[in-house]
Amino acid sequence: MSSTSNIPANTPHILVLGMGGTIAGLALNPEQTPMQYQAGQVGIEALLGQVQSAIPQGIALVSRQLANIDSRNLAEANLTDLGIAVREALMDDSVKGLVITHGTDTIEETGIFLQVTCGKLAQTQSKRVILTGAMLPSNAPGADGPSNLLDALRWASTSIENCPGGIFAVMGGKVCMAMDLAKRHARALNAPIQDSPNSPIRLVKPSWLSGVKAVQAAWNEDLPIPQAGEWPWIEILTSHAGARPETVVQWLKSDVQGLIVAGSGQGGIHDAWVKPLDQAMAQGIALVRTTRTGAGATLQNIPEVDSIGCCASGSFTAPRARIALQLALNAAKQANLVGKPLTWQDFFARIADLPEVW
Ligand code: ASP
């Protein structure tokens, strides 16, 4: 980890945390094959250097390289480091806002992680934390990283009428709450933030802002950040035609602590999996049911009555449900250590009940 600053101590500034991704990627042959590249090659200082001349006057920046990885390799320890760095910065009076450059493959996981562990703190400290990234490597013709980075810096640093502190994402000219990120296209420049429900950054919709405020009103208390070695082991299984019981049975002999089943349609689970999943729950493995369709909420007891203890994911996709379950299991463990008899289902319901922002 490195940190750079050439400003006097205590100068008000925006903290820019580099995590890697395509925004920091390099193509070997950018003119001919721009999409054949390696993510996480360029340091955060160099990325800021590329946009230096366009940074609005009066914004002091401090950068810190937390990781420089392809986010498909994101590890839970990376999230722990990031969460701790964000919480520290939110408590630091000289930090006025944060920008995080991140790979788009798993920005969805990081978005929900930051909302659940740092969202309340960002709101009470009135600071905006902005995730951004890019779909084209930094040396590709027409690279989208510089404009996304500049937009993110503006969003973190300027006052935006009626927009409170919180955890947001800015990409492709759009803004959304970071918990609403979901990469739904392999190549499109707006892949992580889809068009319809989200606010363009230059014309923030009042309906979107009231959605943000509804989420913030519903989110009362951040959950603890798991220590690097303490993240529960959770796997995602996708139900499909021709599913076999063995796919679930093999987990019964493992130390897995939870399963997310991405079911078909409304979160339906293949009959071949029902018995082994009941067995898994009887062994204490946590179970969350979601949909593999990519959109729409998964509701409790729809289309059938859920087995006792199984939670429906609400609007969460499988990757988000996985992080939510990890944080819920960890929070229940911490609560039990101090004598509070709360279950993972109590914490999971709090997270999954957050309103959708349209
Ligand atoms: N594979 C890259 C990453 O997630 C993709 C991107 O950043 O767009 O790091």
How is this structure best described in words?
By secondary structure, this protein is an alpha/beta fold. It has 2 domains: 13-218, L-asparaginase, N-terminal domain (Rossmann fold, 3-Layer(aba) Sandwich); 234-352, Rossmann fold (3-Layer(aba) Sandwich), CATH 3.40.50.40. It contains 9 helices and 14 strands. The chain has helices spanning 44-51, 76-91, 107-124, 145-157, 206-218, 245-252, 271-282, 318-337, 344-352, and strands at residues 2-4, 13-20, 26-27, 37-38, 61-69, 95-101, 128-132, 166-171, 174-177, 199-200, 234-238, 258-263, 286-291, 311-312. The strands form 3 sheets. An 8-stranded mixed beta sheet has the order 1-5-2-6-7-8-9-10, sandwiched between helices. It has a 4-stranded parallel beta sheet with strand order 11-12-13-14, sandwiched between helices. A two-stranded antiparallel sheet has the order 3-4. Strand 6 (95-101), helix 3 (107-124) and strand 7 form a beta-alpha-beta unit. Helix 3 (107-124) packs across helix 8 and helix 8 (318-337) packs across helix 9 (344-352). 47% of the residues are buried. Bound molecules: aspartic acid (ASP). The site of aspartic acid (ASP) has 12 residues, from loops. One of its GO terms (molecular function) is asparaginase activity. The active site is at 22 (o-isoaspartyl threonine intermediate), 104. Pfam families: Asparaginase (PF00710), Asparaginase_C (PF17763).
